[in-house]
């Protein structure tokens, strides 16, 4: 689960559904959360009072990091980098609410 500031549920639905092209899971979810499908997992987005940015993040493995970065760049999403890890390439991005995400590709 990630959080977005109170009053931004419509923006969250637009970002995750339209910009990131995730399939929304309809239904009456606890605490009016939005649920999205990513492959065979779910991303739950819930409104909470705003707070400082955090480095906490989920990490998602992708088949092609270059393709993922190109997708994000075309959507106007800023990409950031961090320390290198042997055997994988990775990058980070934040959604409009400050949530941090890692994308990684294991090197063959």
From TrEMBL:
Matches recorded under Pfam families: Glyoxalase
Top-rank lineage group of the source organism: Bacteria
Residues making up the signal peptide according to the UniProt record: none
Gene3D superfamilies on file: 2,3-Dihydroxybiphenyl 1,2-Dioxygenase, domain 1
InterPro entries named among the record's database cross-references: Glyas_Bleomycin-R_OHBP_Dase (IPR029068), Glyas_Fos-R_dOase_dom (IPR004360), VOC_core (IPR037523)
Domain VOC residues, every copy: 1-106
Name recorded for this polypeptide: VOC domain-containing protein
Organism: Pedobacter hartonius
């Amino acid at each position: 689960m990630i959080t977005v500031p109170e009053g931004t549920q419509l923006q969250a639905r637009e970002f995750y559904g339209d910009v990131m092209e995730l399939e929304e899971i309809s239904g009456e979810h606890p605490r009016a959360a939005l649920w999205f499908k990513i492959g065979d997992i779910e991303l739950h987005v819930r409104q909470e009072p705003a707070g400082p940015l955090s480095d906490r993040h989920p990490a998602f493995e992708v088949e092609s990091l270059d393709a993922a970065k190109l997708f994000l760049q075309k959507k106007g999403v800023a990409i950031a980098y961090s320390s290198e890890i042997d055997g994988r390439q990775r990058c980070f991005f934040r959604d409009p609410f400050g949530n941090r995400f890692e994308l990684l590709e294991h090197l063959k």
